[in-house]
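User: Could you go from structure to sequence for me? I need the amino acid at each position, not a summary. Structure tokens:
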């Protein structure tokens, strides 16, 4: 078996071999294609779903999948010729998608492509977006088909459009965001012609639905090289089109404001760094991107020459809500990001002199977003001076510990004897006396030790009876 196929997990290899034999038996071609081939070459295919392309018709694919023993076979998109299947025989179920070779012809920029089947593997690869995504590996022999030299581009860590870049982006402007998203996920750079075409075609992003824009931007934001991805958005002008709300912040990346506002640092640069430092979860990364978005609009210079951004948290929170609503984000993402932006400065104000109730109030205000808020506040420290960074980090850590301690104490307070004095007197028909305290304390100890449940009154009564009879 060829090297490429041996990069797959054992499970993936078994299914690939099974399908290869089934399709070969029916005289049909079968190739792994797209993201999985790219990930094989990157040595990270083990978690990627298996996508295949085949010469077989959609109806034939369904028959062959059933013959191969797939547990469920379903049509993903009949007009696109895709059949999905799940194999659950091994301990980890495997999803596969098999698409009949097809080509796409775009009659003009505004319409969906005309899909033609009955084409070759090469035609099928030609419709794909980037050279790294336009390769195939024969499921039987492991031979690589690579008409656009995607393997070389992966070795160079370059994202390059297949064919004429301007045309590819005109055909489907979603590819503009896919390019930036791959930069963020893989840390690759853009081929210069591809980037120049992206810049020229950026405006066509307006034709893409807001849900798809949101999905791509969210994937970009949680990428490992998110700073590279955001920089691509800015350089190509895609940022101004996809997120015009950030325009004032982006403008500052170019204008030299330090001259006018003294030691204040570049807001865009700061924003990108906060995003990169924040944990790779959608709500925190979105909040990091938007946390200072209202600063340019709220900036004032006081008589002493100090710069202030009065109310930028609240105005930024409104901006975040508007932006995410425009992109049709779900309610949870919208409200979490809004809350995080509104509250992002509060943990940094913490010091040990805060009362317990002040800490509780902050945690209560943050609610389910408490951990996100602490993570965002910890990321929102980009000072060049190490001492400043350490002080800020210690504050957030101190707040987090303080809250955990309060929680633990509150939990301890709830650990009580299941029976109180009145219960015990009624139970044993005895008058008040020191015996009550002794039994209650013993019962509470048992609760703390986890020997009895704080709600278990019957169990506690039995134990109390034993304790009394010890006297
Ligand atoms: P991932 O699944 O990791 O996001 P992927 O490359 O597998 O990345 P998919 O959206 O799963 O992306 O698409 C599978 C393949 O289909 C791609 O590798 C590419 O060959 C092709 N493809 C997907 N979207 C487009 C598009 N908008 N234009 C052209 N080809 C595309
Ligand atoms: Mg994929």
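Assistant: Here is the amino acid at each position, in order:
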């Amino acid at each position: 078996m060829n090297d490429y196929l041996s990069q797959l997990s054992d499970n993936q290899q078994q299914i690939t071999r099974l399908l290869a034999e089934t399709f070969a038996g029916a005289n049909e071609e079968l190739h792994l294609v797209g993201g999985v081939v790219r990930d094989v070459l990157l040595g990270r295919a083990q978690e990627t779903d298996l996508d295949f392309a085949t010469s077989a018709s959609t109806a034939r694919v369904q028959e062959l999948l059933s013959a191969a023993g797939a547990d469920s076979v379903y049509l993903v998109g009949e007009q696109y010729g895709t059949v999905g299947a799940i194999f659950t025989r091994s301990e980890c179920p495997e999803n596969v998608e098999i698409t009949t070779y097809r080509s796409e012809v775009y009659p003009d920029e505004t319409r969906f492509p005309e899909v033609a089947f009955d084409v070759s593997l090469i035609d099928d690869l030609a419709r794909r977006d980037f050279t790294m995504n336009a390769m195939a590996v024969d499921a039987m022999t492991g031979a690589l088909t690579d008409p656009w030299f995607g393997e070389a581009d992966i070795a160079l860590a370059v994202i390059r459009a297949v064919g004429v870049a301007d045309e590819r982006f005109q055909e489907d402007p979603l590819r503009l965001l896919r390019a930036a998203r791959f930069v963020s996920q893989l840390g690759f750079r853009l081929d210069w012609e591809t980037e120049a075409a992206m810049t020229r075609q950026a405006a066509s992003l307006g034709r893409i639905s807001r849900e798809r824009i949101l999905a791509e931007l969210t994937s970009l934001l949680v990428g490992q090289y998110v700073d590279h991805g955001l920089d691509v958005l800015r350089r190509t002008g895609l940022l101004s089109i996809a997120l015009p709300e950030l325009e004032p912040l982006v403008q500052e990346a170019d204008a030299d404001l330090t001259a006018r506002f003294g030691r204040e640092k570049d807001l865009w640069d700061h924003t990108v760094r906060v995003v990169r430092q924040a944990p790779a979860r959608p709500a925190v990364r979105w909040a990091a991107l938007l946390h200072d978005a209202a600063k340019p609009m709220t900036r004032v210079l006081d008589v002493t020459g100090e710069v202030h951004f009065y109310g930028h948290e609240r105005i930024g929170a409104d901006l975040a809500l508007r932006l995410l609503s425009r992109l049709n984000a779900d309610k949870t993402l919208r409200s979490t990001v809004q809350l995080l932006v509104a509250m992002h400065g509060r943990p940094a104000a913490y010091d040990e002199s805060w009362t317990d109730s002040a800490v509780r109030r902050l945690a209560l205000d943050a609610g389910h977003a408490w951990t996100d808020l602490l993570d965002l506040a910890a990321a929102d420290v980009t000072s060049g001076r190490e001492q400043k960074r350490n002080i800020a980090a210690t504050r957030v850590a101190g707040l987090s510990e303080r809250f955990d301690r309060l929680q633990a104490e509150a939990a301890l307070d709830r650990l009580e004897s299941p029976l109180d004095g009145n219960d015990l007197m009624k139970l044993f028909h005895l008058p008040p006396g020191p015996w009550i305290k002794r039994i209650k304390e013993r019962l509470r100890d048992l609760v703390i030790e986890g020997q009895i449940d704080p709600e278990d009154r019957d169990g506690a009564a039995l134990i109390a009876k034993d304790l009394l009879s010890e006297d």
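One structural detail worth keeping in mind: The chain has a mean pLDDT of 91.
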